[in-house]
Write a structure and sequence with these properties.
This protein is an all-alpha fold and 408 residues long. The chain is 67% helix and 1% strand. Among the domains are: 153 residues, UbiA prenyltransferase (Tetracycline Repressor, domain 2, Orthogonal Bundle), CATH 1.10.357.140; 113 residues. It is built from 19 helices and two strands. β1 and β2 form a beta hairpin. The longest helix has 25 residues. It is flat. The relative contact order is 0.09.
Length: 408
């Protein structure tokens, strides 16, 4: 407990949110000279050493607003208040809307798999995926507390506002991750649990710190978002087939126009917090990548029937959605303004659910036996040992020659 408080106070002091002489700091860590000395040593260098990522003109326009102190300092929260708002705070820790999207893509993967639908396994897989996602988001907020305090978009998060102690976030993450992975392993299958554990590690240990180091974080984050459909597919079929890869590829590419459009209007926030996003470091690349991946989505949908995932109707019905998605991405690429980015982002929220619905309606195989039954229904050549063949002699009449397997 003391370590977590020291860590959080250290981060806040480095960001200028606290002063070691302030009484609020003493209340957090107690009257322990050793801890005071530890904080002084750990705050001797400034944490946000990276220079601003935007140009001076952009920074001037952004009006670098200082976040009020009361939203950046952790405060002792009464136990009764935590109990009364436990559900609400837990939803905030788990990033409920983001977790809901993750669960929805996992459900789509389960429903699209060519295997019998089992309601119990489906429910366990969905809840387990949601718990693992909640754990990942909680750990993410714990790591990014001082940086979230500098962004208008994230300054009201539960840890930044001091509604919960950092130890609560760690405990919540531990409980949800262990419960979720156990449900996936024992209630679904080991493959689904392995995918969930790998995604949890990828998101918290690699993607989260990489956000402040390189724009590669966007590509890595798209991989994180593409794994939940694989979990759903594996939960139903017990293996990963071509259909799982198609749905995962769609999720991977969809995240680029979605996130690049979202981050475009948040460039001052990301720059102030020191995040290395394409929209900040390379705006032209940000727009090109968004446009490129709308084209990849269209091509993937057209290829889906040939990969034995959906019927041809899916390729036809998804085409208007994808063409309009490409059009909005093109407008974003050409205009590069807040209006075009906002339109692209909002349509992306409609595009993904509509695409998954069309895939489900036009699913080609509903059980794993459908493929074999279709193959069995095709006429096959039957070879009989007594079949005669005609041989034409060089200068003679046409004679019937029996096969060598037939006795004369």
């Amino acid at each position: 407990m003391s370590y977590l408080k020291v860590l959080h106070c250290t981060l806040c002091i480095k960001q200028g949110a606290l002063n070691l002489s302030n009484k609020s700091v003493l209340l957090k860590i107690g009257n322990k000279p050793a801890l005071h000395h530890l904080i002084k040593i750990s705050t001797s260098c400034h944490l946000n050493a990276n220079p601003p990522l935007t140009s001076q003109s952009t920074t001037a326009k952004a009006k670098n607003k200082k976040v009020p102190e009361d939203t950046r300092v952790w405060k002792e929260t009464p136990t009764q208040d935590v109990k009364n708002n436990l559900v609400q705070y837990s939803m905030m820790l788990s990033k409920f809307r983001l977790t809901s999207l993750v669960v929805m893509t996992s459900m789509a993967g389960y429903a699209l798999a060519p295997a019998p639908f089992d309601l119990t396994t489906f429910a366990i897989c969905s809840v387990g995926t949601g718990l693992v996602s909640s754990a990942a988001n909680s750990i993410n907020q714990f790591h990014e507390m001082p940086f979230d305090a500098q962004m208008s978009r994230t300054k009201n998060r539960v840890l930044v506002k001091g509604l919960l102690e950092p130890s609560h976030a760690v405990g919540f993450a531990a409980a949800t991750s262990v419960t979720g992975l156990s449900m996936l392993y024992f209630g679904v299958n080991p493959l689904t649990a392995a995918l969930g554990a790998g995604n949890l590690i990828l998101y918290t240990s690699i993607y989260t710190p990489l956000k402040r180091l390189s724009i590669v974080n966007t590509w890595l984050g798209s991989i994180v978002g593409a794994i939940p459909p694989l979990m759903g597919w594996a939960g139903c079929a017990g293996e990963l087939g071509a259909g799982a890869l198609v749905l995962s590829a769609l999720l991977y590419s969809w995240q680029f126009p979605h996130f690049n459009a979202l981050s475009w209007n948040l460039r001052p926030d990301y720059s102030r917090a020191g995040y290395r996003m394409m929209a900040v470091t390379d705006p032209a690349l940000c727009r090109r990548v968004a446009l490129r991946h709308t084209g990849i989505i269209t091509a993937t949908c057209l290829a889906s029937p040939y990969l034995e995932v959906t019927n041809m109707w899916f390729a036809i019905e998804s085409l208007p959605l994808n063409i309009y998605f490409m059009y909005l991405a093109w407008q974003f690429y050409k205009k590069s303004d807040s209006g075009s980015s906002r339109k692209l982002f909002r349509f992306s929220l409609i595009h993904l659910p509509a695409l998954m619905f069309l895939m489900l309606v036009n699913k080609k195989y509903w059980t794993s036996s459908d493929t074999q039954e279709q193959k069995d229904s095709k006429p096959q050549d039957i070879k009989h040992p007594e079949t005669k063949r005609i041989t034409v002699l060089p200068r003679g009449p046409v004679v019937a020659a029996q096969d060598s397997t037939v006795h004369k």
